[in-house]
Amino acid sequence: MKKKHMARGTGALVLVTGLAISAIGNPAHAALSGQALVNSKCATCHEAKTDQHWTRIGESRRTPEGWDMTVARMTFAHGVKLSSEERGAVVKYLADTYGLAPDETADHRYIIERTPSVVEHPESKPIGDTCARCHSYGRIAVQRRTEDDWRKLVHFHVGQFPAIEIQAGGRDRNWFEIATGDVAKELGKVYGYDTASWKQWQAQKHADASGVWRLVGNRPGVGAYEGKATIARTGDDRYSVAMVMRYENGSEESAKGSAIVYTGHEWRATLKQGGRDIHQVFSLGANGAELNGRWFEANNDAVGGTMRAVRADKGVPASVLSVQPAMVRAGMRTTLAINGVGLNGEVNLGRGVKVIKLVEQSAERIVAEVEVAKDVASSSRDVQVGRASGAGLLKLYKQIDYVKVLPQHPMARVGGNGGSQPKVPAQLEAIAWAAGPDGKPGTADDIRLGAVPAAWSVDNLNKMAAEMQDTKFAGRIEQTGLFVPNGAGPNAERKYKTNNAGELKVTATVKDGSRMVKASAPLIVTVQRFNDPPIR
Amino acid sequence: MLTKNKLTTACLANATAAALLTLYSAGVLAKDYIVTTARPDVLFVVDAKERKVVKTHKIPNTSMGNSPITVVPSRDGKVAYIIHNRWETVSGIDLENGKEVFRAELSEGEDLRGKAVFAMDLSPDGKELAVFVNPTRLLPGEYQVLDPYIAIYRTDAGTDAKPERKLPSPRRVSTLAYSAKGDTLYTFSWEMLKLDPKTGAVKGQHPWRSWKEPNRGEPDTLAIWPQWEQTNIFATPYYKVATDKEAGDPAALRAGIWALDLEKDTVSFKEFEDASVVLFSSAVNPVRRNEVYTVYTQLTRTDMKTGKMDRVDLDHTYYDVNVSSDGSELYIGGTQGDIAVYDSKSLKRIGNIRTPGGGDQVLSSLRIFKR
User: In sequence order, what are the residues at sequence separation of 6 or more whose Cβ sits closer than 8 angstroms to the Cβ of residue A363?
Assistant: First the structure.
């Protein structure tokens, strides 16, 4: 597809509904002053200290989703009345005034991107042990507060949910004492309010996102894609977006919608993409030169993909973004597509990879026929076009030494069946690996080759699962690696009339020439999440 | 105030009159009745052997989205005290006519909110009600958690009851239990404390967190189900990590029953298996007093002397278990909308009682009284 197929995004603004229960994607509130609203709606309980600081409100910093959750609580718990436009304006103002700099969210973007089945690694053990049993650790790590405000948050927890002290993980310790004592101090230290990052970010002029963008990404279950986007400014921090995405399997999707940028970098867009409602949660980074993040279906966030986009306006520096296919076996002859911007000059894939001929060549895409020598070692190769280089983008391999199933601890949830919650599927991927220069699989120099097609199967995870016939009741797996759980509610056919939860083992069988390489992962099928806030 | 008091007196009078014409078999052999609650606001009484709901009452002025929790019937079976209304209210309901004869709002004024987290008991003479309260100061834009206390109410304080006195209490109390004589208020926090119910003075304790056994870690239990009225023995299942076993070894987590005799002030315990199923709450058989029953997705019978164990699967999860006065039947409830009846010897299911209206019992207690 060429440029002319992309809508220009200057037409009527597409009205969007925003994130699940929030007003975050809603562009209709441009005219309202968030600051005036905080004075009129919040200052009765949160005394104004200066014209931009009210008690509690000036003592923490959050993501747009974080602010939206708090403002939502002010509405349902403390009776604050806000129209959805007003709520959007308050959240926009608070996220801009009390937000997080890009590097402050970098390690925990999975929680706002709603990446499925992430195993968290709390960087603070005391905080993890005290706080991460009801909700994610990430919920905490994407906030910054004064030590005193962290302590007030603990008081809120115990005042609101007094059983916190007798539940498992609470009763085995002096929870309240620990949480208001050492842990509040630790929170103030690790996630404190004052940071150099934030000072610097506030002082910086924030980028305008409008322009033409070249994008690449991966959608688990479907594959890699590349495409283009046109972003046009429609107001302060507001944009229209039109995109086209071409998948390596030959399918193509176009998307159209609108976006708001919070805090100078938190890009939130809602689009119609291939007939579905999609949310994008990106960060506008590298001084406005890159957009990075995850997009997902609005009503099924387990399904989505990652995206990286760079500016493709005239005169931008050349860069190589991706290569398709990203892995080639030694001794093979194949057609490679190199995606990037400003591509110009000789294609160089390193020793042992011969470029036989160029099939297609533009500034954004080069298609070449290449031949990989038989004796080439398994390795990562830089993809060079002229002076531009994509580090380690191409993987060469002698054989697939092993496979890993991702996510490593997948989880699906029963749903539907007349209940309020839809099913939550689990999208699995089989990732191929090759041993590195040491020739030993399982060592630090191993090479991650990428996602490969697999034959998928499920088994019972353990004896209990076998007794309960979990494979029969919990769901089924499609050959794209999509596990679809069964319906919610008690099942009269099951022992204890229990629901369709289960403990399964998924196995991917990958064909590598004449060899079969297998990998498994435990797959937990559990019950619905009835309360699914923007930050879990 | 005056009208309220008058109303209460009238209610009481009515209740007394009604008691004379009661359904309950006065004079003849006392029968077992089960009292429990269900969503959203239902209190009901069951003739246990008849498997029949004989009374259904509404808990007045409660929050409908929330379910009632702890239930404490008076020993004479006249009144049941219930924590409800987002845990912010205790009501005493006359079981004969459904009148609210006692009501204590745990919050004080506009800005001091009190919540009762399960622990509540009635003195054996029925005169005083002890409630563990977690208070929170509601400041503008901020909540401030205060020290918890045990509120002691006179049960004749009517429907605008205020605490007669407040006893200081440690945090994290899950059970309050009066000794059989009423001279000790057992307060189960990190340790099983023995409080003087008059002053709150700590008279002593039975070790819990400080209970040491070779090769064992600290015990863990969730004791929020009062069901000792048939025996005066408080029994709760517990888990302990076996510190001499590798994690992952089935024997690395051990399960047992811990029991406190509320008459003799003695503790006994029996570790009886590698933890293999979830054990929620326990009750002791009043006739074969070595037998303890524990429920969750299974019904387990444990011999406290030998550690011998029998187990059957249940049709769904249950939180509560209680035992008939003759020791022959087990009543299993909580969680969903039914009470299952099991034979205490064969562990066979012999009956079933649906909750009126079909609401779930959730975390309610399942109590027995005789009349």
Answer: A341, A342, A343, A344
Hey, is the C-beta of B240 within 8 angstroms of any chain A C-beta? no
Tell me if the domain spanning A319-397 has CATH number 2.60.40.10: yes
Q: Compute the nearest-CA separation of A457 from chain B (Å).
A: 27
A47/B315 touch (CB, cutoff 8 Å), yes or no: no
Residue window 165-184, chain B: list those with CB within 8 Å of chain A: 171-172, 174
Contacts of B143 in chain A (CB under 8 A): 152, 155-156, 159-160
| CA pseudo-torsion sign A427, A432, A438, A441 | positive
Domain assignment present for B9: no
A226's tokens = 């590349």
Instruction: Characterize B245-262 residue by residue with b for buried, 16 or more Cβ atoms within 10 angstroms of its Cβ, and e for exposed.
Output: eeeeeeeebbbbbbbbbb
A159–B145 C-beta distance less than 8 A: yes
Contact assignment for B117 to A495 by CB distance below 8 Å:
no
3-state helix, strand, coil in chain B (%, to 5): 10, 45, 45
Instruction: Give the residue ranges of chain A where pLDDT is below 50.
Output: 1-23, 26-30
Nearest CB to A166: which of B115, B117, B141? B117
Q: Residue A167: its chain B contacts at CB < 8 A? A: 222
Domain A402-526: assigned CATH number: 2.60.40.10
Residue B21 maps to a domain: no
Reported ipTM: the value is 0.91
DSSP string spanning B358-371?
G---BT---EEEE-
pLDDT tens profile A425-478: 999 999 999 999 999 999 999 999 999 999 999 999 999 999 999 999 999 999
Per-residue pLDDT, B64: 87
Using the structure block, give the residue that is written with the tokens 């390193």. A350
A interface mutation test: which of B143, B220, B349, B360 has the most A CBs within 10 A?
Answer: B143
**Strand, helix or coil for residue A58:** coil
Map out the domains of chain A as residue ranges. 4-199, 211-311, 319-397, 402-526
CATH topology of domain A211-311: Lipocalin (2.40.128)
Does residue B122 fall inside a structural domain? yes
CA distance A154 to chain B (A): 9
Residue B96's domain is classified under what CATH number? 2.130.10.10
Domain that residue B287 falls in: 31-370
Q: How many domains does chain B have?
A: 1
Matching CATH topology for A319-397 and A402-526?
A: yes
What percent of chain B lies above the pLDDT cut of 70?
92
The reported pLDDT for the residue numbered B15 is 39
How far does the CA of residue A172 sit from the closest CA of chain B (Å)? 7
Residue B7 located in a structural domain: no
- pLDDT, tens digit (0-9, with 9 covering 90-100), for A204-247: 999 999 999 999 999 999 999 999 999 999 999 999 999 999 99
